[in-house]
Amino acid sequence: MGRYLDAVCKLCRREGVKLYLKGSRCESPKCAIDRRNTPPGMHGHRRGKLSEYGMRLREKQRLKRFYGVFEKQFRRYFAIASRSPQNTGEALLSIMERRLDNVVYRLGFAPSRASARQLVSHGHFTVNGIACDIPSRLLRPNDVVAVKANRPRSLQLVKLNLQSASNPVPDFLERSSDDPPSGRLLRLPTRSDVDPHIEDIREQLIIEVSTR
To answer: Where are the alpha helices (DSSP H) in 23-99?
Structure first.
């Protein structure tokens, strides 16, 4: 499983927008964008005008980095979306929202997508009662994600995150207040269900650069 090991705040600075990669820190004065809104590197202050290709590439990179996806995974998702009968851009965003690590984050079980990815890969969750440690798994309607009941540490981590969760649960998900905490995918997410922090993404530009 590939991981990004460099400072994630550099990614936000490179894209020029907050990607909310560090949870509550991104809402605090410590956020790198608020403190130093220039691209990383010694020539960061000299930001030139983007070309047509550069605009499209930056949209694609922003989407990948927001959801924590590398190029190989992105190409697989784009191929799936291209075969979908619905709009390719909307299908691509729906796929991103159906990732297990994203669902865990949006249910409030983790403070960030990176944290959700770690919790899933360390085996803290089950899908439909079966242990799953694959953060990139794409969920289907009526799939149930639950914390492992026989692991006190898992319950402790998730309950702690739920206490500090501030974002509402989206309409395509349902969170249960039972013990252990669980959630269910009610339906396939649509364009309006995309995370509000990236709802201004221009998916048409991503399609154009991905089909070159």
So the answer is: 32-35, 52-67, 71-82, 88-98
How far is the C-alpha of 134 from the C-alpha of 39, rounded, in Å?
32
Please indicate, yes or no, if residue 108 is contained in any of the structural domains.
yes
Q: Which pTM was predicted? A: 0.85
Q: How far apart are the first and last CA of the chain?
A: 27
Measured in degrees and rounded to the nearest 5, phi and psi for residue 143 equal: -70, 140
Average pLDDT across the chain, whole number: 84
pLDDT digits (tens, 9 = 90+) for 122-156: 999 999 999 999 999 999 999 999 999 888 888 88
Helix, strand or coil, per DSSP, at residue 138: strand
Tokens of 116: 């959700």
Tokens, residue 180: 């252990």
Please report, for the domain that includes residue 127, its CATH number: 3.10.290.10
Asked if 209 and 57 count as a contact pair (C-beta separation under 8 A), the reply is: yes
Name the residue range of residue 166's domain. 99-191
